[in-house]
Design goal:
Blueprint lengths: L3 H10 L4 H17 L8 H11 L6 H12 L4 H22 L9 E2 L2 E2 L1 H5 L1 H22 L5 H15 L4 H11 L7 H27 L3 H28 L2 H4 L5 H4 L5 H5 L1 H17 L9 H12 L3
Antiparallel strand pairs: 1-2
Helix pairs in contact: 3-7, 4-5, 4-10, 5-7, 5-10, 8-10, 9-10, 10-11, 11-15, 15-16
The structure holds geranylgeranyl diphosphate.
Length: 308
């Protein structure tokens, strides 16, 4: 029987070099993203879109989409437009999250936030333009994929970012502000929607483009929901333990605003343990793929070991 332990031994045996892999994939994504937006009249909006889209970041979402597409039998080329669209959606959510009406932050990815540079009105519009362009980009740039799969990707993306996904999570998060009696159930709802839904979309869209059927998509869904929640637990821990320089954004905000987080409920060590359990469960879902799963398994472990 293949167990998570065995899988991890397999990764070690194959000497999978995650940092080289991430470096190469990040570079590919940066090149592709750079080509997505041209600056034309009215220049200011295109510049504002490019400012945040090309501001760096780990590019975890596009990398997950590409890796899943490859693992399930597709290739990078068919997935790159969707990978770029996912990063556009993620970037728009960061721009809007940083606005004074939301989380009110001055720094993101080590730079001033979009509204600090372009003003609130343009930042809102830059987010809107990135969100709508993401859908246009998938529809117009995806090649060599049956139209029905592209349609499914578009539909899935819409669901993941709307009221049933990111927006819904953000609403409950806003409602929870200043309350100290937030239950674990509510906290899980917030982060399953705010954070895990988009990570899940990255993985599922990669699979859909490659032609995954229902059973495989359900397996991918379980993998991604687990890494999604683990990602947020680690994010909460890093808010306490990392510096502003490491994070590229204001550190210690959760403590300052007395926000209920996983470490505030469980403590840091127990939170780390729970994140690791989720990662182990996620990796167990990838048993059938054997060596082909190396990138997704290594990325899952990176989620708990990351420093930003
Ligand atoms: C999507 C229509 C629509 C509206 C957005 C503002 C909002 C509604 C939702 C907030 C979503 C949000 C900001 C969730 C936090 C997710 C998270 C942990 C982000 C940090 O991701 P990293 O660490 O960042 O991958 P980098 O910079 O590396 O890409």
């Amino acid at each position: 029987m293949v167990t998570t332990d065995n899988l991890q031994k397999t990764i070690r045996k194959s000497k999978f070099d995650l940092s080289a892999y991430l470096k190469e994939r990040k570079q590919l994504c940066e090149q592709a993203l750079d080509k997505t937006i041209e600056v034309v009249y009215p220049e200011k909006i295109y510049e504002a879109m490019r400012y945040s889209l090309l501001a760096g970041g780990k590019r975890l979402r596009p990398i997950l989409c590409l890796a899943t597409c490859e693992m399930t039998g597709g290739n990078i080329d068919i997935a790159m437009p969707t990978a770029c669209a996912l990063e556009m959606i993620h970037t728009m959510s960061l721009i809007h999250d940083d606005l004074p009406a939301m989380d009110n932050d001055d720094y993101r990815r080590g730079k001033l936030t979009n509204h600090k540079v372009y003003g609130e009105n343009i930042a809102i519009l830059a987010g809107d333009a990135l969100l709508t362009y993401a859908f246009e980009y998938v529809a117009s740039k995806t090649q060599n994929v049956p139209a029905a799969r592209i349609l499914r990707v578009i539909s899935h993306l819409g669901k993941a970012v709307g009221a049933a996904g990111l927006v819904g999570g953000q609403v409950v998060d806003l409602d929870s502000e200043g309350k100290s009696d937030i239950s674990l159930e509510t906290l899980n709802f917030i982060h399953n929607h705010k954070t895990a839904a988009l990570l899940e979309a990255c993985v599922l869209c990669g699979g859909i483009l490659a032609g995954s059927e229902e059973e495989e998509l359900q397996r991918l869904s379980r993998y991604s929901q687990n890494i999604g929640l683990a990602f947020q637990i680690i994010d909460d821990i890093l808010d306490i333990t990392a510096t502003q320089e490491e994070l590229g954004k204001t550190a210690g905000k959760d403590l300052e605003s007395q926000k209920v987080t996983y470490p505030s409920l469980w403590g840091i060590e127990e939170s780390r343990k729970k994140a690791q359990e989720l990662i182990d469960q996620a990796c167990a879902e990838l048993e059938p793929y054997q060596e082909k799963a190396n990138p997704l398994i290594a990325i899952a472990h990176y989620i708990t070991s990351r420093k930003n």
